[in-house]
């Protein structure tokens, strides 16, 4: 089940707050206006969108809003509930046979589980079931990777267009050296476009691409558990043995989370 992920807006808010505090601390509230320039906005955002349109098809571009919304959602992985589902299915298969599982699928909401169980009910061999389900996992990874590549390309293009804006500002400044009044605006254009490009790349596009990659890893991990559960049910494994086997994935997930927390703690300590 997907819920709203507070960490994404909190991270964006903290990043912008740090920038604003740095400006206010040195230039005061009145200095904020210096950091906004319409010409810089047009160069960076307009150039970025133009580059993406050249790089991707219209169909791919239209997926961007949906992918951005995914960054603000979190997938609640109820691994314990998933294990309980397969233990129940395994017990019923041993008592009543695999054909009895088809009636139980109405209570299962996950399409991937339904597909695996139906393949097992149809008497498909274990290796074939695993190949079919893994093919779907690989296809899902490819779809996610392709959608994520838009954010990765945007992270590359944004600083580049910032540098283009800088070059434009420098050209304008050098052409009007005899007019001191024009040097300030031209220099501001040269510097602010680089700032906009760097902020967009490092606060928006790179973190979003990384978060989408994490979402894919979590989904692949969950589907690996489902595949092992389906194979266990199809082979008639004892429910207790299957529960212990699938619980190893849960312990692996908790260990991975603990390692991530430890790494983050070490990074904060070094900072």
Class based on secondary structure composition and strand pairing: mainly alpha
Report the principal-axis shape: elongated
Low-confidence stretches: 258-271
Query: What helical percentage do the residues reach?
Result: over 70%
Question: Would you report the number of β strands?
Answer: 2
Q: Helix and strand string, N-terminal first?
A: EHHHHEHHHHHH
In percent terms, what proportion of residues is strand?
A: under 5%
Strand order of the largest sheet: 1-2
Number of domain modules: 1
Q: How far is it from the N-terminal to the C-terminal residue, by CA?
A: 35 Å
Summed up, the helix count is: 10
Radius of gyration: 26 Å
Major sheet description: 2 strands, antiparallel
Mean pLDDT score, rounded? 83
Written account of the structure:
By secondary structure, the chain is mainly alpha-helical. It has one domain (37-256). It is 82% helix and 2% strand. Strands 1-2 form a two-stranded antiparallel ribbon. Helix 2 (38-55) packs parallel to helix 9 and helix 9 packs antiparallel against helix 10. It is elongated.
Give a short overview.
The protein is mainly α and 271 residues long. The protein is built from ten helices and two strands, in the order βααααβαααααα.
Chart the SSEs and their pairings.
Elements: E1 2-4, H1 7-27, H2 38-55, H3 58-61, H4 64-71, E2 73-75, H5 79-96, H6 101-104, H7 111-121, H8 126-175, H9 180-234, H10 239-270
Antiparallel strand pairs: 1-2
């Amino acid at each position: 089940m997907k819920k709203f992920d507070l960490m994404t807006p909190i991270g964006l808010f903290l990043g912008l707050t740090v920038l604003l505090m740095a400006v206010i601390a040195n230039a005061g509230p009145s200095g904020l206006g210096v950091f906004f320039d319409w010409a810089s906005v047009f160069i960076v955002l307009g150039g970025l969108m133009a580059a993406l349109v050249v790089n991707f098809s219209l169909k791919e571009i239209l997926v961007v809003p949906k992918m951005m919304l995914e960054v603000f959602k979190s997938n609640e992985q109820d691994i314990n509930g998933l294990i309980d589902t397969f233990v129940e299915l395994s017990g019923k298969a041993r008592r009543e046979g695999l054909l009895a599982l088809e009636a139980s699928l109405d209570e299962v909401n996950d399409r991937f589980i339904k597909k695996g169980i139906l393949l097992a009910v149809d008497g498909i061999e274990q290796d074939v079931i695993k190949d079919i389900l893994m093919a779907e996992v690989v296809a899902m990874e490819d779809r996610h990777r392709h959608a994520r590549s838009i954010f990765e390309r945007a992270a590359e293009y944004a600083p580049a267009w910032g540098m283009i804006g800088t070059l434009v500002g420098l050209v304008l400044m050098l052409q009007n050296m005899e007019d001191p009044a024009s040097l300030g605006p031209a220099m501001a254009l040269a510097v602010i476009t680089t700032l906009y490009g760097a902020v967009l790349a490092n606060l928006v596009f790179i973190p979003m691409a990384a978060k989408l990659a994490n979402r894919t890893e979590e989904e692949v991990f969950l589907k690996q558990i489902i595949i092992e559960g389906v194979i266990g049910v199809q082979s008639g494994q004892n429910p207790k043995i299957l529960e212990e086997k699938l619980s190893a994935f849960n312990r692996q997930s908790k260990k991975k989370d603990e390692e991530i927390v430890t790494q983050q703690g070490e990074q904060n300590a070094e900072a």
